[in-house]
Specification:
About 35% of the residues lie in helices and about 25% in strands. By secondary structure, it is of the alpha/beta class. Helix 1 packs across helix 4. Bound molecules: flavin mononucleotide. Flavin mononucleotide binds next to helix 1 and strand 4.
């Protein structure tokens, strides 16, 4: 059984809900998932010991939240190369954050990426719940490759 760390950055809670649904999907796929608020990650050691990493941030003013930018600088020192990875986030209209996180995990950390970032306007409208759970299942599948 593999273990995945999901870290979310949120202002009003929507991105946290998406994280919890992705974690459900990972568990449905037979793996373990820990969901943590970004505020609990203090140094790169807090990121170690997992087989997969899924980072999420809501989009504000066309960007990921500041805490996620700080986390990505920390993660650069955590030795995540080759680990399974994905990204997600709630958004209103432009949703830049998940794509930026995904590109950093792919190009800088050289992680083993799932098909693309998950961007959701809501965790419960328009199939959001299923899409988030399916994203978790995709992470689980990638862990077996
Ligand atoms: C002041 C403000 C600025 C925002 N800027 C953007 C933006 O640039 N692009 C976008 O897609 N959504 C934007 N949003 C919408 C949020 O991303 C959306 O409400 C999201 O669900 C918040 O997620 P959270 O609950 O995880 O914080 C903005 C919302 C607020 C209140």
């Amino acid at each position: 059984m593999s273990k995945v760390l999901l870290v979310y950055s949120t202002r009003t809670g929507e991105t946290k809900k998406i994280a919890e649904l992705i974690a459900e999907g990972i568990r449905m796929g037979g793996n373990e998932a820990d969901v943590v608020n970004i505020t609990t990650i203090k140094n790169e050691k807090n990121l170690q010991g997992y087989d997969g990493y899924v980072f999420g941030s809501a989009t504000y003013h066309g960007e990921m939240m500041q805490a996620m930018k700080t986390l990505l600088f920390l993660a650069e020192k955590a030795g995540l190369e080759g680990k399974v990875a994905g990204s997600f986030g709630a958004f209103g209209w432009s949703g830049e954050a998940p794509g930026r996180i995904y590109d950093t995990m792919k190009n800088i950390f050289k992680m083993k990426m799932v098909g693309g970032p998950l961007r959701l306007k809501s965790s419960f409208l328009g199939g959001g719940t299923t899409m988030a759970q399916d994203y978790g299942k995709e992470i689980s599948k990638k862990l077996k490759e």
